[in-house]
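Suppose you are handed a protein chain with no further information: no name, no annotation, nothing but its sequence. What can you learn? This example shows the usual starting point.
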Amino acid sequence: MHFDEAASSRWVHSEEWFDPDQTELRFTALLQCNSDKCKEVVSVCGRGSYKQVVDEEGSDWSWQPYFLPLYASLPVSFIPLPESTPMRVADQLKLSFTLLWSSPSAAANHVRIAVENLQDALRVPRARRIKGVRMARIMLHDRIVELKPRSPDVAEALLAIKWVGNAGSHLGELTRDVVFDAYDILEIVLEDLFVKNRDVKKKLIREINRRKGPRAKRAKSLI
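A reasonable first move is to predict its three-dimensional structure. Written in structure tokens, the prediction is:
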């Protein structure tokens, strides 16, 4: 890894208000997959700064650098996509993985589109004919409700993902942790549908559905 300080903070070191946590760092790095079957190399770049870190005894602290990736030369698959995952679902998730570094909210929106496309694969109608009106689009929430009688666990999971996607559309920039929640749930849905049955993370799903939005913050995170 190589990193250096950006000019925007280097020129203000002499100001009275300046502290190390206002430093703006830039970094580049080469990462290699640790799987013996892969060993692919990916270039990564991003930004960073300094934070206070307490020593193991809790008696002293120091300023330590931290780094946040903003770009990777190859998209990272944050969850495995089963081979039988519908192409239109997989394509949206790959776009989401790519965007997560620079815009978690945009990544969440593509997860929402993946949910729409997944319901197409499950043959949940996108529109219905209303008397006196041509075909009317069915909203995502209503499509999920329509799925519930035949796949209640899947419908509940997709509803939780919908709340996360809505937050990405309406509440401004999300954190990556929020999008990872959606990935965690969707991973289980895809495995339930296209690999094998497994227990759903019911606590996470219930919490998001109860809040009708992202769950409470995790332990303090840099992302």
